[in-house]
Design a protein that fits this description.
single chain; 5-stranded antiparallel β-sheet; 4-stranded mixed β-sheet
Length: 598
């Protein structure tokens, strides 16, 4: 079985490489990386849109695994520029349907003949997915929706996953370190997510758990599962039709309050993530509908996730800090969650967060500041110290997608007010204040204890100094081998100086009797010293190339250095329409020199 899987992967490998090769060559040509001719060239937003469309067609051609990969990429602005994200978002709903004969074969293998298992069965799918299809049917007099996994999809997915893992080291070699970090996490997330989605038993368990947590909400509808018609490859649920949540015209005709609908959606997701620890992780418009009464229907729980208590607490800290406009608190929460590098320039990040909060609040922001900060952040995403750790990928995905749905419903929607109201109602703001008071009390206690214990210890240390009996042990951590390089550089410099000085002395004090011999000796010393001179030069050269430094990836100085009238491809200021995550995470490229162009 393993051998067959490997053979299938080997067959798929050249096909995948062939399909992606034109995009890879164009990307390398733009940046002039690993190519011996031409100059780097400007890449306009229009060019990126065209290439994104080529990428979309390539993913559709390669089949279900890569369609699912495209769906995940469409929610990862840390991996792709916004033009690609926008184009790939069509994969959320526009997936080619599978032939009925394929679905029928799976149904018969799992439940027996379709006519015997169901009273009625509509062979036209009501929803298409990369890994399966959803059909409407009648089961024991009840109208149901039947989700059927595509036949042979598991073998195809496993082969494609092997191909992706084989290609990942090559891809990360061509891109920057920041993007390589995100790609590595994305690969792990994709492997885990796609295997979970193929297991309909897991989806059924997650659906039932989430339904138990939020099912009593009077504004939420989660379909009930049908045990007798569900297996590992078939999931049957009660049929709950509704109006697509992004169809604002239809919602207005129904008299639905779209602002209240957006508030309900965000509140429910806050509850799922902060309180319950288990959440529906695929809230794109194709998986959300609205009943005539204004209740939100959730579909497709294949992509669901869990949040551990530590992350839940950090998310609460993050929202509380936003509610209080505590910039330092926001940055501390991001660092603890692993989404912000501890080495980041906090002053720059503080400017970005202030701008993002003002954007969400709808406050007036000067155009100069937008161009100086947001444009630079978006155009240098892969140098920016924001990352998507594996345990936060689904949470941040939900945050960005839910934001998009809420903005579609109400362009003036205030995320901070809704989050603040929820935190107040659940008592999180009071608990945060209590925790702050407790921590402050502990600090006072520690300070009082130190006032008692430190003087005797200090007196003991001073006695040791007076007796000349004080020993100090110093351990120096040198992860970048800076001291080792410095020692080599000093050695090379000393040997070079001694050699040249010796040659100069011998040559200067030569006598007529030994002039020829002294000249040869001096020349020999110079020749012997040349390697040391070469090694000294190379040590300085290697330092510049390797970057032996402790400076953060994104600083004010770099922002000023990169600022010029030709920095943007135009229209970058429109990035202010995105949320906090998109403001600081969306990529773009400048003059063909950024690592984000695909």
């Amino acid at each position: 079985m393993v051998t067959l899987a490997f053979l299938r992967a080997y067959r798929r490998f050249p096909v995948v490489v062939y399909r992606f090769l034109p995009l890879v060559v164009a990307y390398l040509r733009d940046r002039r990386r690993f190519l011996l001719f031409g100059r780097s060239r400007d890449v306009t937003p229009e060019t990126r849109v065209r290439r994104a469309e080529v990428l979309l067609e390539t993913l559709l051609t390669l089949g279900p695994t890569f369609i699912k990969l495209g769906q995940i990429l469409s929610t990862r602005p840390d991996v792709l520029p916004p033009e690609y994200v926008d184009v790939l978002s069509s994969l959320q709903d526009d997936v080619p349907p599978a032939p009925w004969s394929d679905a029928e074969a799976v149904l018969e293998a799992e439940l027996g003949p379709v006519d015997d298992a169901f009273d009625e069965f509509d062979t036209e799918p009501i929803s298409g997915a990369s890994l399966g299809q959803v059909y409407a049917a009648t089961f024991r007099g009840e109208r149901v929706a039947v989700k059927v996994r595509r036949p042979g999809i598991e073998e195809l997915v496993n082969a494609d996953l092997r191909v992706i893992k084989w290609l990942l080291p090559v891809v990360t070699w061509f891109v920057g370190s920041g993007q390589a970090f995100s790609l590595s996490n994305l690969a792990d997330e994709f492997d885990r997510t796609i295997n979970q989605e193929m297991d309909y038993r897991r989806e059924k368990r997650m659906l039932e758990e989430i339904r138990g947590n939020v099912g009593d909400h009077d504004r939420i509808v989660i379909p009930r599962t049908v045990d007798d018609a569900s297996t590992g490859r078939v999931l049957t649920m009660e049929y709950r039709p509704g109006t697509k949540i992004s169809d604002t015209e239809a919602l207005d005709e129904m008299g639905i309050d779209r602002t209240e609908l957006a508030s309900t959606l965000e509140t429910v997701y806050l509850q799922m993530i902060i309180d319950d620890g288990v959440f529906h992780a695929d809230p794109h418009p194709g998986n959300l509908a609205v009943t005539e009464e204004g209740r939100i229907i959730f579909y497709d729980f294949g992509m669901s996730g869990r949040v551990d208590p530590f992350i839940q607490e950090r998310i609460v800290d993050f929202y509380v800090a936003i509610a209080n406009q505590d910039i330092d608190g926001i940055l501390d929460a991001l660092v603890e969650m692993g989404t912000l590098s501890p080495e980041a320039d906090r002053d720059v990040m503080a400017d970005v967060m202030e701008l993002a909060i003002a954007d969400v609040r709808g406050e007036d922001i000067g155009q100069y500041r937008v161009q100086q900060v947001i444009q630079q952040v978006e155009s240098t995403m892969y140098e920016f110290p924001l990352r998507l750790p594996q345990n936060m990928a689904l949470v941040l995905r939900v945050a960005t997608v839910v934001e998009g749905v809420c903005v579609t419903l109400d362009p003036e929607f205030d995320f901070i007010d809704v989050a603040t109201d929820y935190l107040k109602a659940e008592g999180y703001l009071e608990r945060s204040a209590e925790r702050f008071a407790k921590e402050a009390g502990e600090q006072v206690r520690d300070t009082a204890e130190a006032m008692v214990t430190v003087p005797p210890k200090l007196d003991s240390v001073l006695d040791s100094v007076q007796r000349e009996d004080l020993t100090v042990n110093v351990n120096i951590e040198d992860g970048n081998d800076v001291l080792d390089d410095l020692a080599k550089r000093i050695s090379y410099a000393i040997l070079t100086a001694v050699g040249l000085l010796s040659a100069a002395i011998i040559y200067s004090f030569r006598t007529p009797a030994t002039a020829l011999l002294d000249t040869y000796v001096a020349a020999g010393i110079v020749v012997a010293t040349l390697p040391m001179l070469f090694f000294l030069y190379r040590s300085f050269r290697r330092t510049r190339e390797r970057g032996i430094q402790a400076s953060p990836q994104f600083t004010r100085q770099k922002m000023r250095q990169r600022q010029s009238p030709d920095d943007s491809d135009g229209g970058a200021a429109t990035g202010i329409e995105r949320s906090v995550d998109r403001d600081v995470g969306a990529g773009g490229d400048r003059n063909g020199g950024s690592d984000d162009e695909k």
